[in-house]
Amino acid sequence: MIIFILLNISCRKNDLIEPADDYVPPLPPIKLEVYSAFDGQVGLSWRKNMEPDIEGYLVYRSINDTSDFTYITFTINNYYIDGNLEYDSTYYYRIAAKDFDGNISGFSDMVSAKPVNIFPPYNPVYLYVYARNNSGNPEIEVSWSPAYDNDISHYEIYRSAVVNYTLQDQYLLLKSADNYFLDTNNIELLKKYYYRIVSVDKGGLKSSGTEPVSDYALNVPELLYPGNNTTINKIDEFIFRAASAPASYELIIQTSEHEGVIHNVPIFDAEPDSVYALKADNLYLNPYIKYYWKIAAYTKDRKPNSVSKTFSFFYNPGQN
């Protein structure tokens, strides 16, 4: 009997602590403020609700009207930055709190702001310039990370053959909304080109322009030994003529013309236009196989600027 009573009490106790649904909405958020409003963005902040079960806040906006509010976002923070706005429009805001049971408070007080255009935008960052000799057609890849501003309209791309130049129309290549450009406009081999990028906002204000970044497209290294379609009886050296401007190089040996790389040997001390002999005594190649070799030239990173023709040779160590 005592065991039955204890079990019965235990079951009733579990029933009592089972959580009930909460149908009570939270209080409306207070202290909604505009802490910044310029250059096409509005910054909002408010005091966090004190209820322990607040999931987050719903942000509502009306444009040039105090009554036509629409939902724009949900945030778990007590601040929000609204961007990509028009400079000459007035934006009205209200927010509501939401708890984990889905209950939504009434609206907060209303605030308004006009994000007029005041400051010029920031420069783009991480400007990268990479030249390459694409089968005799030199081209230069120009890319950058966008400026941090919310109101960017486009970018101006400038190019000059001298490092110190002012941002004048004579150096302006084009205007682009993208942050990538492939320059094929009268690129000369071995000529260094300096690029600068300017951010332009929707109001026409411009950044000061990035620092110049440069590169040049190399002529192609010339393979000298082993000759194309030849047979050799020992692996002692690979000889090539370097490009006509400073570069680093890489010997590439493959088992087929387009793939199957088995050796990559970096070369850092080949002078421009010099004949360079790479000692290859320590390179092992299986005998009686046809191999393919080429030289890649680099001016930066590990992306080839130019690549030689591909030559083949047959390795026959038994032939004198």
UniProtKB/TrEMBL annotation:
It comes from the Bacteria. Transmembrane segments: none annotated. InterPro entries: FN3_dom (IPR003961), FN3_sf (IPR036116), Ig-like_fold (IPR013783). SUPFAM superfamilies: Fibronectin type III. Residues 25-121 form the Fibronectin type-III domain. This is Fibronectin type III domain-containing protein. It comes from Melioribacter roseus (strain DSM 23840 / JCM 17771 / VKM B-2668 / P3M-2).
